[in-house]
Design goal:
Keywords (chains A, B, C, D, E, F, G, H): Hydrolase
Largest sheet of chain A: 5 strands, parallel
Strand order of the largest sheet of chain A: 2-1-3-4-5
Protein name (chains A, B, C, D, E, F, G, H): SGNH/GDSL hydrolase family protein
Structural class of chain A: alpha/beta
InterPro entries (chains A, B, C, D, E, F, G, H): Ester_Hydrolysis_Enzymes, SGNH_hydro, SGNH_hydro_sf
Radius of gyration of chain A: 17 Å
Oligomer: homooctamer
Number of domains of chain A: 1
CATH class of chain A: Alpha Beta
Strand content of chain A: 5-15%
CATH architecture of chain A: 3-Layer(aba) Sandwich
CATH superfamily of chain A: SGNH hydrolase
Largest interface: A-B, 39 and 39 residues
Order of helices and strands of chain A: EHHEHEHHEHEHH
GO molecular function (chains A, B, C, D, E, F, G, H): phosphatidylcholine lysophospholipase activity
């Protein structure tokens, strides 16, 4: 387990991260962490490693692109002084190119995406103990699909930024692809983007694996 | 993994099971399984064993005692023809004795509890492939607390019924006790009964362990 | 124009037809026809052929399969004594197989679909002056997609039933395929099923073309 | 077809244009264009000329007179830099004279109307490729009706401004008059001003005819 | 003043009478008489003739035609045993012919109207001390307007029934015509049918005049 | 009739005047004048003297005392430039002394009341053609009742201010006293302050009598 | 203290008793006893005599007269088998005679009141250990007030029935009269009927005094 | 009775004090004092000592710690110029340490608690005639419970501050302990913090005893 006693773990991202979290704080009781993978990660940590007292904060905002993250980076990341930071961004950067193709100023193309994400990571990496980069994804099994193909390219950018900056890296597309061999997208997400609980659990498990969560801990002791 | 391809797993119980599930069906998309341990169990099964196609049905109803289960047993259990059945009942049987002590006809005392639960189990055991009995619990660390003490006695009844009928058995009180060594009840449940997501995850993990869920399955393959 | 003065045109189907129509009547002022292709067809007929006084009735119900149509056929079709009847059914028959694959009793497989649709058409054809069969569709450009492939098979059934019974026939999948050469599905329907106004207009135009609507009528006269 | 690839078409006006559009943007998915003629025009353009990628923006605001348009012209027209602009204004300028005759400062009399509209058109005409002027209308067949008579005078002003500035011109009153030969006003608009879908379709068709929309395009190709 | 101490005055009719009255009773405090002419009549009687104790009951139902009155005549008129009865019906009988011209089974044509009204009056006249017939009306000044012309014909039927049965008679159309010489319909009723408070006051005054209400009573005494 | 063609009549006061009027304007269609005596006065004027075009404005605000009127006098009276002004204030000045007797800073005692009212009247009288002063009232028949006795004293102040400034004067308490000889207060106002429609009609009639309204006008002409 | 360990105390009455209690049960947690004197009595008993375990049930229904009590006596009193019964009824029996004086069938005059109340008491007295009769009241200090005078007469009936049947008796009017020497009715009840918390506390104290509640019990022990 | 004629008594605290009071004032009719012990104290004073005219003000705010009181002390205490002041604070200071143990900046530890409370008391004591300090409490009978143990320590601080500053002192924990000998916490408060009416009555009685309230006053006089 890579997180240490009393550390603060902050998640930033779009609606997949947000999931109706409490605003502005993004932490506390009564569903303040939303009802997605962030809340599941926190529940796993609290129930399995209660002695560590890991503090989880959710700063996702629905509809955000990397351009929005840049605007609120100082307030929502730097000022929070997290020990660990997890970023999952890019779905809306791509999606707007496909659902409202004529409103071009809302599109974040791949060059801007790469430069902005790279700058944010370089700026913050020295200040945190761990930085996790999660790729955007699209719950569509056909790699030739227009939007899936774009998403894969943005995912490759995330991988490259992670490697250049020595970050933890999670290929969320791969996580979903594995399940899509058996299940049709409609059973996981009504719009191939916003997953149901099964999909969020896949994201949470991938995150926990990356940070060294032990699935066996506590099992059998009870 | 003890469940087989295409089997139906039905949960019955009180508000811990219910968790705002869709009524009357209790299965399907869009939160139909509620937002508690049943939904988590289903999400674990779907995301980890998608090839098995396990069908999960939630028949919990808030406020129920074992007396209520008896009344709706034919419609909500027998008629559903589940392959696996999980029962968690008893919290309200005890709670009413402590929160409304003067309204005695709403109390289900331990003799009625034992006899009713035992009869239901005996009646249905031959018709299912697996039957899981989960004890009631109280998220209170003091074993001398009046209500905790009663709950432990009802839990002992469940253990006895499980043994006599050769059922799977989960001691949920033990699951919570383990965490209460490090955390105060208020961080898990506002009323020491209805847990937050951390608490439901504990229940889901205990259930999955009992049915042979493999935590390593699929990890690393992605 | 194939419809004659004072005739009643009745549409039956699922949510694509329903579109929040008034229930139970399904006709009248103030949005009683819903906000989909049925309402558009009626608006085209009223504004372009006001002298004909065509009466449009909407009997779509969300979530319906052909099995549901059969149950309400007497009340919602036969008793209404329409002069023209239009049927678009089958999307849910297929969709349930993909979004809730484990709940098999909600699936309407292709044999039941064909037999039921065929019987309904045979029963009613003699009583109406015109009967229009519209295929189900899926706003997905990849013909190898699992659900699109199934939908194409159900569409082929509709074509066969139309031919055997000498009905008017509309291949709605072809209508959408044409636009999907230029637009990604996300710009037409959030779930590839329920279209926005552009999609409903495509359905309305296809229907109007089939019944001999003249696009030039009235243009220039004003 | 007079609009070219990638152009932006902006509509400004009163409640007939507004129709519950998203504010402040007035474009995007999920009904952002409202549910009136603007949305229909957009749906026709998207479904019939998907390859052109015409971007439609709705800047109508309920209750507006030409005096209000003048106040928000810079922000809602000039700053938007549309390629094409369509203006339909004047109904409230007249209506207030008849429904609240004693509140005279809310009346916009014909001299102010002409001067304001003329100035706005002169100011913007050089900056757009096409400018369409639609007359106000009143869905009342009796030309001697007080309010209809006034509306006709305001309509004549629009015609004059269009001619002086070489704009496209649509006589919406004539469009409705044609249908009123067969239908009573109550079947088109509860207050003779706000039309139902049939009425909005008439406005949309008149607009599309004026900009060279081809009704046959795509028909038969599918 | 023709009403005597302690008498019950019952109004029946359509939405003009209903005006959101309490249902089913239609009398009592807190707006139970609705907010239209019935409530005004009651307020005039109570405030000017408090010593008479006239009891007013409102049995109007929105959307009713004379066909509906016939169906509920026993329960809502005969069983109530009023001393005085006032009937205003016919607007919807006519209106449906103009706003939904194609749905013919909802139209009540003039022969049915005359026969039904006449029978109801003949049946009840012997049982009441006073029976007031109010014509339907249309707040449209043009006598050549299609719907106004029809309404005048129905109004003539009411006059004839009143004369044949020796009833009190109120020509409500004449009441509105008088004001329409100075005011446009839009200032009295958004749809030329449902009047604002000025219009309801006109109806109340016409009714009160017919029953011998003294406008000077009590003035000067205070 | 003392009001002349095109004049503006403004009412200011407390909740009796307010009656849920539109804010901030207090005039226009759709109930903008509230549902009390102001709306009734306007309806009487519009329906009986439509040719005069009297414009009525309601500036009542619930809970106001004369202290509040002073604060908003410039904006709500002077800036509105009415031709006629009607003031009814004082009920809350007295009421707070009886319903919350211990919160003394909310009480407006009689000296402050007299001075403030007198100043407002003196300031505005020269700018209007007519100024009507209506006393506060209490719908309680017992003159020895504590609150009724106070209200009578405040009413005497209004009479004195009216006389000193040559204003029109209405003794609203006398109006109610007349009816209270026959009716118990509970049938007019649930709290002896806020009247039902009968009570508001009494106020409206007293006002209209004072300004020379002719009850016979138009009667018989129709 | 006259109540004994484990006894059930049932209150029946009108809105003063009801106070938004849970229906149909009228007992339990979370405000089930309403927010009036019944809830206060229960809170006093529970907090001061917790060892007695007195069970309080509220069967008040707003608007009830003694005529309504008779209709539901079997279900709401007899079937509940209370040990102690408290009745407070009569306010609506009187009130309807004053707030809706013309609707005479809703009035319960004093003969019917006496006979009905007397019969109910005679029927039930033998079945309970204690029966408390509380008079109706009117929070009006003037004994010559019409409605107060009637209420006093109904109160005298209650006293007589209590004496004849050897019941406990509470003169609630006297309780309020005492406070009205210092406070105006408006500070206790907006309509002189429904008291605020001060008024309900007066009723609760009077009841507790009658049943031998000891105000000193437990004070000083803590 | 220690309070004198016309004095103002102000309560400040957290949610136990707040109880949904009117904000910002915290006094007046219609539940402005909330529905907890403050409202009960006021009702006791008003109903038993109406001649004293004690004015009660509630300035509790849910969730407050002593840190919050300090921030609003000037506005909510000093500026209000109370004659008597009652403070009950500390529950949230402790609770946050147990329900959200990882969010440490929201915890108010005992040193800060003592210093802040002590300073506020010293600052205000000279300006008031009476100052009452109520301890925080926890409705948990087990003195070894983690949170109960902390609460007892904070309560001891309050006792010490009271003694050092010569304040009135109420040990609320002792009040609840007395009842917990007979009742389980669940029957008094769902979360062992927010009491039902029985619990608030206990607090009110303890307060009234401390200020010399006479339980016998007025009893017997009625």
């Amino acid at each position: 387990m890579k997180l240490k006693q009393g550390q603060k773990l902050l998640f930033i991202g779009d609606s997949i991260t947000d999931c109706d979290r409490a605003k502005p704080e993004g932490e506390g009781l009564f569903g303040a962490l939303g009802n997605g993978y962030v809340s599941l990660v926190s529940a796993f940590l609290t129930s399995t490693y209660p002695e560590l007292g890991i503090r989880v904060v959710n700063k996702g905002i629905s509809g955000n692109t990397v351009r929005n993250l840049k605007e609120r980076w100082q307030a929502d990341v730097e000022d929070q002084k997290p020990d660990w930071l997890s970023i999952m961004i890019g779905i809306n950067d791509v999606w707007r190119q496909y659902d409202t193709p004529f409103i071009k100023e809302k599109h974040v193309y791949i060059d801007e995406y790469m430069e902005t994400l790279s700058n944010l990571v370089k700026e913050t990496k020295p200040n945190v103990e761990g930085l996790v980069l999660m790729t955007p994804y699209y719950i569509e099994p056909n790699p030739a699909d227009w939007m899936r193909k774009s998403m894969d390219q943005y995912g490759a950018v995330v991988r490259q930024v992670a490697e250049e900056n020595n970050c933890y890296f999670i290929d969320t597309q791969a996580v979903f692809n594995h399940v899509l061999e058996n299940l049709y997208p409609a059973s996981l997400a009504w719009d191939r983007v916003h997953p149901n609980e099964s999909g969020h659990l896949l994201l949470a498990r991938a995150f926990l694996n990356e940070i060294g969560f032990s699935w066996d801990k506590g099992i059998g002791e009870q």
